[in-house]
Every structure is written in C-alpha cells, then in structure tokens.
Amino acid sequence: MGLAVLVSACAASAFADDKLAANEKTSSGTITALDAKEKVLKIQGILFTKTFALGENCALAVDNMTGATLDQFRTGQRVTVNYRDADGVLVADRVTQDRLFYTGEVSAVDEKNHTLSIRHHGATKSFSIADNCGVTLSAKAGGTLDDIKPGSHVTVVYETPAGHWVARWIEQPSQQFTGTLDTVNLADRTITAGKPLLGDKKFHLGDDCVVVLNGKLSSRLKDLHPGEACELSYDTVNGINIVNRIAPVTATDKAAATAQTTSPTTPMAGY
Questions:
Q1: Could you tell me if 106 and 149 are in contact, meaning their C-beta atoms sit under 8 angstroms apart?
Q2: Assigned superfamily of 100-171
Q3: Of 4, 8, 73, 269, whose CB has the highest number of CB atoms within 10 Å?
C-alpha cells in the first residue's frame, strides 16, 4: 500500500512539473521599469507591454551566463523573460539580458556633444555616447574615445532608453601600425609600409578599406603616395594582414600619439 501511494505521488509530481513546463512562455522586449524592492519588471515590445513579478528563485543572466544581480539591469536594456501565466499574473522564472550590437565603420565622432555615427552597408545610425561609455581596443587593451576615429571599424554595445540609441561600450578590435608607405600596388590591392630598422610589412586592402583624408572618408587609393607616414588599421587572418583603414599622419597626430598614454578601462556593471 505504501509503495502504491509513493508511486502515485511521484506520478502526480511529475505531471505537475510537466504541466508547469508546458505553461512556460518567453517574451522579449526593452525594460521600461524595474523595481528591485518590489521585484517588478516591465518590458515594452513592438506591439505590447508586459509586467512581471520576479519569482523568489528567478534566475538572472547576462548573455546566458547565470549568477547576475538585479543591479546589472536597468531601463533601456533588452531582455528575454521566461515566465508562467498564473491566473493572469505573469511570474518570471528567468530574465536574460540580451546585449544589442551594431557593427560598422565610424563616419563621425563628436566628443564635445557625445555623439557617434556608424555606417553599415550604406545605412548610418547615430548614437548618444553614455558618460561612462567604455572603450576596448585590440588585445582587450583599455582605450578612450580619442582612439575611436573616422574610418575605424567598431562594434557598439548599446541600449535604447526611451527609444534613444545610447552607446554603452565601443569595441575597436583592429591592430594599429604607423609607418612610412613604401609601395602602393593598385592592381593587386596591396601596399607595403615600414619603420626604420624594422623593414617593410605587407598589407592586403580589404574591400571595405577606407582612406581618411583631412578627416573625411574616401576610397581613393590613388590619393596615397609612397614616402608619407600613414596609420593603418588591420586584422590578421592566418598570417595575412588585411587593412580596413588608412590615414596619413600629420605632425600634430605624431605629437599626440607620442604624448598619449592609455590605461585599462574598468567594465561597467552588466558589461
């Protein structure tokens, strides 16, 4: 009799768990309100607004990495919520912060007005730059907004509070090389550049490579002249150096590069 009761209880429990799993739903949107004390979360989708009660054991995650805390969430972030509809009350079991990315080349950066414009496949998107916006350079080195220049290929991590695009983090992964331009081969789209005592370095020009002249973006490789100092942004793929940005270096640029020092930037909470 006892065994029969135990089997029956286990079966009922399994049935209840299956029923709960079957009732779980997901919804994605932008956080419009978050009350950590009352454990209430509101999100806005394209055609809906939903309010969730955060369950006692609600899991919090950033990019599917669990163990996050509520102070890593704020309005403007996009999240995915796993929840159950309990008689009209939406109970959240898991909230995952989904980072928003935008990748392209910098068409304009205005440090004074804290704005940044990124061009991608002919379309340009403008961002406000958050006061504590972080910058990461190649090899995960910390940088500043001074390192983000017209023509740089970047990935922007952003949020959309009140519908405004706000840059929270800027990643500029390309390596930098400054040297004297030695040869320009327009036929096979290659160049060589070098430094005294170090010899020449060969580069292949990517299809999206831009030439920056007087702060303006161009693709006119014929404007490059052997013998002038240039700054190259490039990525290395299986030993091949592929350039995505070329900018002649002026005397002012050289002085700034010599004086500039960078230090690692501490990531913000949630990033």
A1: yes
A2: Copper binding periplasmic protein CusF (2.40.50.320)
A3: 73
